[in-house]
Amino acid sequence: MTDSGMTDAGVTPGALLGVQEEPAPALRAESVSRTFGSGAREVHACTDISLEVHSGELLVVRGKSGSGKTTLLNILGGLDRPTSGDVWIGDQELTSLSDGKLAEVRRGRIGYVFQTFGLIPVLSAAENIEVPLRIRGTDPAVREQQVAEMLELVGLADHAAQRPYELSGGQQQRVGLARALVGEPDILLADEPTGQLDSRTAATMMDLIEELVKARGIAAVISTHDPLLVARAHNVVDLHDGRLAPQDGEARGRHAAPVPAV
Ligand SMILES: Nc1ncnc2c1ncn2[C@@H]1O[C@H](COP(=O)(O)OP(=O)(O)OP(=O)(O)O)[C@@H](O)[C@H]1O
Fold first, then answer.
1. Which intervals hold domain ABC transporter (predicted)?
2. Which protein residues touch ligand 1 with a CB less than 6 Å away?
């Protein structure tokens, strides 16, 4: 038996016994808390949050303004560090990493979509999508091909040369999604990605995210205020004052996302 629990033949004990093993979650948070400030000004933005998301699954985090959604997503995506608790991407624990290593994991494994789109105004749609590949030093011919594929995938092949201000809100957000996915991340994090869109465009955007998450086996976490958007989720969790509320049975996934406290 090796340290990883495998036999010398590279087989897990469960496989030898014919037991179907649950795949490890792509993203996992364990007892994550985040406090800002101190003393009388201390704010408990997130308290003791545990959850997991598997590849190909979409977890929706729902909660009122100020409930801690952005704080949680920032921690899950390695943009902020928790005050206590751990975050795992596959078998990589994030909170113990140096800033440099964390940046590497962010670049290589995580795609982000922001409510305000976060596009660079002087760049065209294609150039915005290309940014993560340039940062990674991807070969120009490969870059061109991957950007063209992504434009096609989000239905913007005819808008490649347009700058953000020449695109509608929904089109800009599709550029944001294409930019998040062009590096083939394992994890997609979207903080209220439909917040600036009308309800029909928001629904189309969520359909697209759902389709791509499934097709590409990505583990996605999306925060939203919008109750209509939760229909597309495998799991839904509710945040109240930084804490996960008990599930209300709306989730349609194979298991509840929050990990019960042990
Ligand atoms: N950097 C910070 N310093 C101090 N307090 C903060 C900081 N960031 C967030 N907070 C506080 O933490 C709490 C949670 O904020 P957060 O932005 O995570 O909520 P949210 O659910 O994303 O809200 P919204 O839907 O309005 O974006 C709020 O009380 C907020 O004021």
1. 27-261
2. 36-37, 43, 45, 63, 65-71
Round the CA-based radius of gyration of the chain to a whole number and report it.
19
Which two tokens mark 148? 């063209």
Question: CA–CA separation, 85 vs 67, rounded Å?
Answer: 19
Which of 33, 35, 61, 67 should be mutated for ligand 1, with most atoms under 8 A from CB?
67
- Ligand 1 pocket test target in 34, 41, 42, 43 with most atoms within 8 Å of CB: 43
Question: pTM for the whole thing?
Answer: 0.85
Is residue 9, in this structure, part of any structural domain at all? no
The answer as to whether 46 is a domain residue is no
Tokens representing residue 129 in the block:
């999508």
Q: How far is the CA of 77 from the centre of ligand 1 (A)?
A: 16
ipTM of the complex: 0.97
Mean pLDDT, the chain, as a whole number?
86
Q: By the 8 A CB rule, do 183 and 138 touch? A: no
SS3 call for 29 = strand
Nearest CA to ligand 1 atom 24: 65
Taking only the tens place, the pLDDT of each residue in 23-33 is 889 999 999 99
Q: How far is CA 207 from each of CA 42, 50, 95, 216, 228, rounded to the nearest angstrom?
A: 39, 27, 32, 14, 12
* Structural domain boundaries enclosing 156: 56-81+98-244
Backbone CA torsion sign across 246, 251, 257, 262: positive
Q: How far apart are the first and last CA of the chain?
A: 28
The verdict on residue 157 lying in a domain is yes
Kindly report the CATH number assigned to the domain that includes residue 169. 3.40.50.300
Integer Cα distance of 218 and 241 in angstroms: 28
